[in-house]
Amino acid sequence: MTTPRVGSATWQDASYRTINVAHALHRRPFTAIGNRQKLKSAEFESRSTSRQCIAPPPFHRDLMAQTCNAVALTYMRDARASMYRLRAALLETNRHIQRLHKERDILEKAHANVRKDIVTNQETVQIRNLRPKSEKYPDKVDTSLREEQKSLLDEKKHSENQLHEVSRQLKALYVNRQKLSEFCKERSRVLDLVGETSKPPAVGQEMPENNNHLWQDKTAYWAVINQAQATCKMFRNTQPPNWQKQADLREMKEGITGALRTKASESSRIREDLTLTLGDSRNFIQKEQRIHDEVEQSYNLQLGPLASTDLTLRESLTRPLVKILQRHPVTQLPESTYTAEGSASLQKTLDRTRQKIRIAQFTQQQLKNDSECKLSGQRLDQAAARLRDRSAKKRQ
């Protein structure tokens, strides 16, 4: 039989609640974390243990220092991996800059040679303009010189455009190299205490990157690396294989020099023919002069004596034999008629001979002038050829 309770139920429940609180304190250790907070660890996912939380251990300070050290080392290793990529991009940019420097040197030398060739072309034209008027007939050398001048001007403009393009590319590469150098310096500031425990990636090998790493903002340096690589690739693809080489004008230059020598040899050969013809003309003039002297002497003899005291000449028409014959009216001798006709014929012969001598002398003077002009043209062509040879030797 149950003994009836005297105390009230409220009074009894209050005491038992205090007892339950004491038992609960014995079962659960004290923690600084609120009871309502749930832990994310996999071992505390069940409902029975979801409200339990273990207090920090006595080595909590050392544990936190070790964890932070691990985070710092991981960040430094990621920074070193970034350094590998930055230095690779910087190395490629430097190689491209060095190549452009070499090509710019080649272009500058080629441009200087083209300018020298233009000056040589102008001097050649000036030398050939000193020729006499009779030697200034248009020839193949003049046509070749005009073609060479046009080609040289085009080549000069082309080399100038190439130099401007190289300067523009170098400016862009200098900007990328400056950015890459600044990022390398910034990344290397946290690499003093990192051990050399890793090796740089091979060429073309992709390195795993943790984009969610603490403090790691890779957007900026990735943008610089991609920009540098894209710039180098674009410049490499936009350049033709022989873009740094000038047009080969050596054959044209050698052809012009050979044409000048050929023209000089032709002038020499023509001058030799002129010299031979000049000798024949001199012989012809002397022969005609002898004929003229003989005809003139005959003409003077045909005219008769100049004075009555000239006994070396023949008798005139008033000699005694003729006077006696002319006593008859029909006895007229044709001697006077024939003498007049012969004198007129001799006069015409003298006139023709004098005209032939004048024409021969005029032709002889033309031959002399032409020979002197040919000699002058030959010397000027040879001087132009020597000038071009000296210019070609200095150019090499």
TrEMBL record:
Pfam families: Tektin. Signal peptide: none annotated. It comes from the Eukaryota. Keywords: Coiled coil, Cytoplasm. InterPro entries: Tektin-like, TEKTL1. Residues 90-117 form a coiled coil. It is found in: Cytoplasm. One of its GO terms (cellular component) is cilium. This is Uncharacterized protein. It comes from Pelobates cultripes (Western spadefoot toad).
